[in-house]
Amino acid sequence: MNLDAHSVPVLTIDGPSGAGKGTICRMVAQATGFSLLDSGALYRLTALACLNGNIDLMSEVLAAEQAECLDVAFKVVGDGTQVLLSGEDVGSIIREERVGMAASKIAAYPKLRAALLDRQRAFRAEPGLVADGRDMGTVVFPDATSKIFLTASADARAHRRVSQLVSLGQAADFEKILADIVARDKQDTSRASAPLIAADDALIVDCTSLSIQQVFDAVMETLPSCQPCL
Ligand code: C5P
Fold it and tell me: Of the chain's two ends, which shows fewer C-beta atoms within 10 Å, N or C?
């Protein structure tokens, strides 16, 4: 256990869906040796647990109960990470849009967010953490060493998603993807509890016309160069 978690460096990367947070977080984790918190996966896992258990998504109490007793494990296998829900590998299922939308719906519940708070903070351990989400810099790690708010236009995010699906040989309907992105942005920014918003002390990076390498360089520049692993 980490007895002095607050001295452990944390880099938070918040922003809307499809901005490329996951890619940049993985690159930073690889370059620094920091561990990675994909907080969205916890909301998606809770949503999947609700869907599997036919839990009414309109019930804050029932959804929060699922978050409290969530049986999850992140298992490193080769280059990737397996995501297990009650022992079952659900890595692909939680990426489905229906799960993302359900996650966004239940993520508005303060009781559910509170139930996931300690679980997220427990990821903070030496040599450091890179945390991907919506409220990493504002709520979960307000004392983070470095905070980024990564954004891009909804159009650019939809185009990237289309290219991603096409490269996987999957069908992609641009208009539908754009509409889903706009709907999720609205849901995430308008909720009362921990809305998607940049922390006052975050560096805002608009990557609409930046390459992945340019974003990565900008993010790495915010980390103190005294990190032992840099
Ligand atoms: O990042 P990802 O798309 O996997 O997140 C799924 C949903 O979970 C988001 O749309 C958002 O509503 C919610 N979420 C959140 N706070 C976080 C991470 C994700 O509310 N820190």
Answer: N
Ligand 1: residues with CB < 6 A are 17, 39-40, 43-44, 100, 103-104, 107, 133-135, 184, 188
Residue 230 has pLDDT above 80, yes or no: no
Count of domains observed in the chain: 1
Ligand 1 center to residue 119 CA distance, Å?
Answer: 15
Question: Which residue has the least CA distance to atom 14 on ligand 1?
Answer: 40
Compute the distance between CA of residue 39 and CA of residue 50 in angstroms, rounded to an integer: 17
226 falls within a domain: no
Between the CA of 147 and the centroid of ligand 1 the distance, in Å, is: 17
The Cα 43–Cα 88 span in angstroms is: 17
Residue 196 maps to which CATH number? 3.40.50.300
> What is residue 145's DSSP assignment?
S
Range of the domain at 204: 7-220
- pLDDT tens profile 17-70: 899 999 999 999 999 999 999 999 999 999 999 999 999 999 999 999 999 999
Q: What is the pLDDT of residue 2?
A: 47
Looking at residue 226, its pLDDT comes to 46
Q: Contact, 127 vs 211, CB < 8 A?
A: no
CA-wise closest residue to 11 among 196, 107, 195, 150: 150
Average per-residue pLDDT for the chain: 92
In a domain, 120, yes or no: yes
Does residue 1 lie within any of the structural domains?
no
Using 50, 70 and 90 to split pLDDT, how confident is the model at 171? Answer: confident
